[in-house]
Amino acid sequence: QHSYCSFVYVVSGMGRCEVDGVRQELESDSVLMLGRNQPHQLIDKSGRAMAVFVVYFKENLPLVEQAMASALFDTPFTRIPKHNSRQFRLLLRQMLYEQNTKPPFYQTALLQCFCSIMLMLYRLNSASTGSDTAKPSSTERVLEALRYVKSHYYEAFTLSDIAADARLSDRQFSNICRQLKSQSFVQYLNAIRSQKARQLLTDTSMSVSAIAFEVGFEEVSTFYRAFKKHQGQSPLSFRKDRKN
Q1: Which of 194, 191, 192 is nearest to 212 (CA)?
Q2: What is the DSSP letter of 48?
Q3: Which of 3, 92, 196, 236 is exposed most, by the fewest CB atoms within 10 A?
């Protein structure tokens, strides 16, 4: 037990944690919240030793809402989907960098990373039903990936990245995506981005280049082509028609 609160993130391997007499199975991308002075024991699975990342923190940190922190300790176990784990690991690596190199205002950077992690864990717990423990089928994994893309359309995605997250080859993912959505992954993603851009063109005075960036396009020319394909006209023509 420790005099600080903490969370344990399993980077790799398998095992379990016994907390207050309760056994929790752990695997890669598992997170377990531990309260201050809470007795616990981490036990590796034979032949699958765990590599863990532990963050210790004080209670009532600034920028961390008390209601959010309380909810996390009420439901202390989170299994992070592959789509989120890239960002989760990046935040942890940045915390290590800030802590080890101590650039100017590194304490602020550490707090910002920590707050982002806590928010991610809270939202994942809030979205999880926790009712299905069976391993998802390939179709379910694709559906999960597409749900993630729908709410994170602004991120930089490649088919290979999202297929790997779903533990499928590019071809397998593409075939299932076409079966489910009657379009390719890129078409599905661009359709979502174009619809979001349509809303911004209608409701704001943002420039076309700013809108393209906000909805996830790296190049304005690519945005123009995608928008025209899905909306039937260029972004400027669309905005002009809405004003008339």
Answers
A1: 194
A2: B
A3: 3
